[in-house]
Amino acid sequence: MKVRRIAAFLLAGILLAYCCAGCSDTAKKEETPTTITVWHVYGGQTDSPLNDLIDAFNQTVGKEQRINVQVTSVSNTNTIHELVLAAANGEPGAPELPDLFVSYPKTVMALPDDSILVDYRDYFSQEELSAFLPAFLEEGTVNDRLVVLPVAKSTEIMYINQTIFDRFSQATGVTLADLDTWEGLFKAAEVYADWTDAQTPDIPGDAKSMFVHDYYFNYFQVGAESLGEDFFQGDKLAFGPAFQAAWEPLARAALRGGVWLKGGYATESIRTGDSIVSVASSASILYYSDVVTYPDNTSEEITIISRPCPVFENGEKLVMQRGAGFCTVRSTPEREQAAVTLLKWLTEPDHNVEFVTRTGYMPVTRAAFENELPKAIEGLESAKYASLYQAYLDTQANYEFYVPPQLESYLSLETTLEDQVRSQLALGRQDYLGAGETGLEQISAERLQAFREIMER
Q1: Which of 99, 266, 273, 369 has the most beta carbons within 10 angstroms of its beta carbon?
Q2: How far is it, in rounded angstroms, from Cα 217 to Cα 407?
Q3: What's the pTM value of the predicted model, to 2 decimals?
Q4: If we measure between CA atoms, which residue out of 309, 313, 343 comes closest to residue 328?
Q5: What is the DSSP letter of 32?
Q6: pLDDT tens for each residue of 197-234
Q7: Cβ atoms within 10 A of the Cβ of 107, count?
Q8: Is 412 helix (H, G, I), strand (E, B) or coil?
Q9: How many helices (H) and strands (E) does the chain have?
Q10: Which SS3 state, helix, strand or coil, does residue 448 take?
Q11: Separation of alpha carbons 122 and 117, rounded Å
Q12: How far is Cα 154 from Cα 284, in angstroms, rounded to an integer?
């Protein structure tokens, strides 16, 4: 009997120790946070608004829910595109995919298997998704799956060197309102060319360009669609009447010297005073200088203001949307949920507006636009940024955001068109300087025909 008691006591001790060990393991497991990794493009590795917000998340919601977010790369979208494809294809030396990475739909379309990405409809309710601007979600939908979630978007904005424009306006009567339509803008560019040319009567043909566009592909694409015509025909361009309607005012102004046709970004010709009005990505506000430096090394402080993108007189108010989003890689339920928790936090109106107003982007939900952004504008110290965000509000209130199609030929068409529009119009400018005003319409038609033949090869 005594032996049995001792045995029972020992067995109980062993079971108690085992249970305590199990409790200890469980406690440790509960205390260990779920760690997820992120690749993004917002800022630098040591100076990033998104990194700052992620730190705030880790110290609040992350701490409460035992989630730790680690930023393992801050790069650019092209580099991330290449690294993601290398990892997905199992290339030697490729890094392991992070839990979250910034991506455009083109990256998803290039994946060997896009089922490696989470469909956000599995994690967001319909009510939660309805808070986003529909076009932003539409762009992130690939093969009927929402795989690219917007956290910050950009669009196209018109930037104006108001300092020089005011002088031009006072001398000619052209107003800012004249720039609201493409027709009005290009007529103003012709007037500007004449005005600047007349300032040096001893040097004929030295007109300055008023206007520079960073993305002619978007000008023609959104323009044609806004006029009720398909821009694409299969994997090529349609070249319908709307395309010609967009070509003619642009070509006329360009041949007469009012449009900047050299390469590079619009910020450069604005910085040197070679042009004073541009249409470019709203995110490029970071690179618009408040000082113009002229060829003779003199400089002048200027005021840059922003306005919504021009539209055609008979067209809808349609504007390009730009900007990448976040993809979540399938892993474990815990890591996927942790990634989604971060994304939901980042897209809450107050956090989202705090993020985008530090990076030059637009928020992604209606509540952020309507409730948080107006308050944030009042607190902005920079008049240049306040002007940009007011233009954002006007754009969101009055325009529809255009969602480009997901075509395999999209990038090659874009690259060729950008090069050839500038090239053909530059050749036309030289022809115009030789032929004079009487040859303008014929030169415009010839350059359009040459351009079309190249695009249809």
Answers
A1: 99
A2: 14
A3: 0.88
A4: 343
A5: S
A6: 999 988 888 899 999 999 999 999 999 999 999 999 99
A7: 25
A8: helix
A9: 19, 17
A10: helix
A11: 11
A12: 9
